[in-house]
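Entry:
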Amino acid sequence: MARRDLFTSGLEMERSELSSRKETMRESAERITLNKRIHEHEEHFKRMNEDSLMHAPEFVIKPRSHTVWEKQCVRLHCTVSGWPDPRVVWYKNNVALDPLANPGKYKIESRYSVHSLEINKCDFDDTAQYRVSAMNAQGELSAFASVVVKRFKGEIDEFLPAPRRAITEVGPVSEYGITFQTHIVDKFGVSFGREGETMSLGCTVIIYPALHRYQPEVEWYRDDVLLSPSKWTHMHWSGDRATLTLTHLNKEDEGLYTLRVTTKSGYETYSAYVFVRDADAEVEGAPAAPLDVRCLDANKDYIIVAWKQPAVDGGSSILGYFVDRCEVGTTHWIQCNDTPVKFARFPVTGLVEGRSYIFRVRAVNKSGISRPSRVSEPVAAMDPADRARMRGTSAPWTGQIIVTEEEPAEGIVPGKPLDLQVTEATKNYVVLSWKPPGEKGLEGVMYYVEKCVSGTDSWQRVNTEIPVKSPRFALFDLAEGKAYRFRVRCCNSAGVGEPSDPTEATTVGDKLDIPSAPGKVIPTRNTDTSVVVSWEASRDAKELVGYYIEGSIVGSNVWEPCNNKPVNVTRFICHGLITGEKYVFRVRAVNAAGISQFSQESEAVEVKAAIGGGILHASPAPPYGITVLECVRDSMVLAWKQPTFIGGADITGYFVDYREVIDGVPGKWHEANIKAVSERAYRVSDLKENKKYQFQVRAANMAGVGIPSLPSNTFLCEEWTIAVPGPPYDLQIREVRNDSLVLLWKPPVYQGRDPVNGFYVDIKEADAPEEAWRGVNTKALEKTYTKIKDLKEGEKYVFRVRAQNKAGVGKVSDVTEPVPALTKPGTKEIVVDVDDDGVISLNFECGNMTPDSKFVWSKNYEEITDTSRLSTETKGTKSKVVFNRPGEEDIGVYSCLVTHTDGASSSYTLSEEELKRLLEISHDHKFPIIPLKSDLAVELLEKGRVRFWLQAEKISNNGRVDYVFNDNVVSQGEKYKMNFDKNTGVIEMTMESLTPADEGTYTFQLQDGKATNQSSLVLIGDVFKQLQKESEFQRKEYFRKQGPHFIEYLSWEVTPECCVVLKCKVGNMKKETSAQWHKDRHQIKVDEHLGFAEGVLKLEIAQISKKDAGVYEVILKDDRGQDTSTLNLTDQGFKDLMNEVFSVIANSSTPLKITSTDEGIRLYTFVSYYNDLLQVTWHYKDSAIAFSDRIKSGVVGEQLWLQIKEPTEKDMGKYAIEFYDGKGGLRRTVDLSGQAFDDAFAEFQRLKAAAIAERNRARVAGGLPDVVTIQEGKALNLTCNISGNPVPEVTWLKNDREITSDEHCILKFESGKFASFTITGVNTSDSGKYSILVKNKYGTESGDFTVEVTEGTPDLGVTSYWTDEEGNVVFGPNTPKEKMKTSLTGTKMQKRKESVSKASTVKNVEDREQGKKNEAQNDRNPGEVGALDSDQTKEARVDLINQTLPVDQSEASEQPADSAEKPEAVAETT
């Protein structure tokens, strides 16, 4: 029974479906017929009276605002009338909606003047104001509607009912009361693939109730374009799972994929993005393959192929592209262009008419060629008209057969083609298009195209053989850079018609520019692996294809493409990022001309999920502080404070709820407003008098409606009757600085009995008690804002406001939140500026803006909405207000607030005086003066040329200069040479020389657009004569310098060694150049003193004196000429030179010192060099010293001294020596007083005593020989000089024992001067060491000698010798020459033994120096040999042993004379 019922019910359903299908087809045919009749009727009336029917658009039914819950669908519709039919565009927040940009989101329909916008699955971003605009030739009209999307709070919104389709006569319908619910589960996510791979996308679809015989309609879309099965895409539906397989991925497959499942109750969609990465390049560094190869225009002899540039260039810029073609049915690819083309369109020629072709493109860079792109769709090379006939299809059956009959029109020549224009022009080809003529007859019309070079009238037919059938034609082989005009003729069998109107001249070349770089790039967090990137569109971009986005991990400097297929929107979600890393992004724009430069890099953004799905999607926190501003019998005005957290977007409005409170028990909440209110005050109506109510408020933004505030206090709804005003509200604090802030408020809603006439502001520290409230103003304020000054930095303050009227001061407002008086870092002020055109503007910059920040300008703290007087411009972080017509109406306080910041704001007061000042500056800028860096000046150049010049600070290329002399404009010529460097602003005029006729006034007149200026220079009288004289001098100097010349003329300098150097610097010398020195016209033989090095000639005068005075001259001479330099060193010149010498000597002097001698005290200083002309003055107590026998001065070498003999205490004081140098002189001082005098005097006394002792002590004046060797039997006699006072005592010693005089050894001391030692007959016992010892009271001295006696035969000859005072032996003149041999006696310096005398002997400085000189003299003159007394030597014979020494007779003959004068020691042997 159950089976029968099931079969019966199934049969009935089939019959019902069949019947319903028939009825639907019948209704559809009737509807089509009716539509056609209506259309024909309308067309008839249009032809009959077209002008009377035309009228502007008019909304019969306007769209209605809606408030819906999240994930519901909403449909806005309107009815528009107008003729011609208006074009309808929908806008969201003034941005045109494009369904293709958001596939599945929006659906726009237009049927029978009914236009609708359907928004699918509303979310928070859909809360906006929508505008529908209707426009035709008669005008434009707009209507508005708002959509508010609310969010359920506290409920799970994932299971909200799916959107349902309304039942319409053209859409899907529910049958038999069955409603299908569709759910898409097991969804595919964001997918990544690589070129050449296979990818499958699939979803499981659950439809309830499940009917086995019912199948939904399953469709796949890519970027809102329906996909059809092909070799690239395979689709499969298994009954519960939909699958899309991409068999061979290419970059064309990248995009947003949408699965749409449609049932009779509606449809459900799901979308996700698929990214396709480039395959590895076959050659390293080669670019990626181009994409989206299409055939834009196909004709019988050409096909225009277009493509899109790849995102990856391989590391080096792409040089161009190769286009390949392949005939369908073959596998042979042919390269179409020999050289790469940079433009992303290329006309392919050389095709065979009627055959089909496919194309591909390859990119080229310096590293190699890319992989080929995906091949294009096949296209046939044929005339478009033929293609249309072949592609034509039969018209749908309308249920009517209409038979028409027309008169034959054969033999009519066609008319002119219409609307001929150049639709595309590149350097490779030009495309023409036109409309067929109005009169063409019944037979087909063909066309001839003609061209001519612009400026000529020589027309040349382009397609001479076969005319074209379609109204479109491409011309090739045109000369690049030339301008052409074109025209078209129609033809048929009746003949060729008149030519069309020619086109304007068209220059062959690329008309499309590469787009500019996109603007600011803003990244926003999205998920853990994605970021939303937004950017400003490329300005003035033509034929924009889309944008490429690249991302890079901060610090890596490696950029990766985020998309490999251009996107034509300015917002893109970049997927596949690494969680936690920071990325920066940049964007490039693409069109057929190429790829733009990169935009500026964005700020770094960390990849992580945003709060609540993204801060941009976070709803606001609840408002707070609900108060009553006014109360009447049935309504109350509420006010509240803005939420502390506004969410991720601006607050768009507030929703107010209320509930009645009965006996303390609150009732159910009711909505007070359906449409959100933008103000923070709202009147709640329809209340009951004398009832109590509570209120709550919710804030809404683009993210949704936030949670409600806490319930307010309970308020009684009764009419206020008080006389004073209610409380002000909405207190706001702006422009917080260290010592000031601005407080704003709104006047009370309840005015009281009389209007409000003022306000009072109270202030107190945040932590202070209530008693600390104090007034800011004593006089009521008329405005609703005030600037509060004199705040304490860092202190927190709170404020409140009271209003007053005639009845008194009303209630206080709510207290503000505590505000610290601190200037936040980075705070900037409004800056006033007047630009070059005299435009006055106020400028404000904010450095801490967010992507949602906006500049809000106000005048007197009311937002500026009137743009007639003020214009606002905002670029990036800067904004300005421009005064269109500045005047007294603009006086006021201007402020700027930046939203979504920490209160960035500033104000500027434009007073009457400030306005006057700015207007003066503006006038100066409107009628500008070219600023000058320097006024007109004159200077002399090489060869004595005269240069007049000035420099302008800034001048454009359009600047012009007039050169004026004595009111007459002069021009370029032989006399005047002009130059104007517009880069540097230097303007100059040169003249070769000056003549008396050139005396006068010179003026340069400048003009640059509307800016002018001039500068003059007056050259008359002495000024002109001096300039002329200098010019002539410079001219002569130039010619002088053509040969050898002096760069620096002859001058002198004194070296630190007091050497005078005469020098000069010479130039332009060569080998043949001679340099001659002269003094007093006599050439100087300088020899080694004349030097020439590095262009400098020098003459050194080592010890200058008066004989060196004179006139010195240097003459340079060669075949090119000569030059002379003279230096006068006579009179004053020589005096100046010597003064410099004296100055050097004085500066080299050592500090004045004190020393003592045996005569007195000596003051002395040393100089590096002494000159006899040096003038020195000695001073005692600042007075010049008068010299005498007691006080003398002198010079010894380089020592200058002052000797004070026998000093006394009167000589104490300050002494100075002053050197004269012709200037201030130099003085050296020493203080001879106190301890210094005492020490010097004591030393003098000591030296004096020592000198006396040294002069009078006993001494052996003559020397004795060290050793005397004598033969036995001979006589020995030695004599030496003795000195000393008193006369010394003489003692002789042998072997340290005293000996006395006897017959054998005779000792004598005669006249107190001569001591003699004689041995009458020497024997061996006389050998030994002998000494003579002399002694008196001042000291003792001894002399030693040794006697050696040898055996030998007597010698009858006599040998005599003298010894000098040092004991050196010399021979006498009477010694026979043959006997001049003797043993070598002691010739060393005699050693003297001195004992300590009663007064110690100390020699002074001069004695030591004299002793050194004596020793040197002795070194030069060896000891002299004195002649022996003839009486003593007649019988003496000396046999000399050891080495004999020959002596020249001539030398011996000279010695007795000296010996007679100064006998030293006499030795005699017999």
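The first strand starts at residue 55 and ends at 61.
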